[in-house]
Design goal:
4 helices; Arc Repressor Mutant, subunit A; single chain; mainly alpha
Length: 94
């Protein structure tokens, strides 16, 4: 394998690895692909950082999905406040 040195703060993985790393992070990669991607990421700073970031992001998205939904009906403005907003919009539109 050809491993690359870190080139700064780049969040980009090696071009030939991006698909494998994404599939590995989401858990859809076959065993051989997961092994190859994780082996490469263990020695390539850019790909290792990318894999950690994608796994972290996926974890955050999963935890957000398990949160209780926000009920917008509970977040309504009082009638007086809404009248004030409409009056300001009318001023702006003049």
């Amino acid at each position: 394998m050809n491993f690359h040195k870190d080139t700064g703060d780049s969040l980009e993985p090696c071009k030939h690895m991006e698909g494998m790393l994404n599939r590995t992070a989401e858990g859809s990669a076959p065993k051989w692909m997961r092994w190859y991607a994780e082996s490469h990421a263990a020695q390539c700073i850019r790909c290792g950082r990318f894999l950690r970031n994608v796994r972290g992001l996926l974890g955050q998205l999963k935890s957000m999905n398990s949160c209780e939904p926000i009920h917008l009906a509970d977040e309504k403005l009082p009638a007086e406040a809404w009248e004030s907003v409409e009056a300001r919009w009318a001023e702006v539109e003049k």
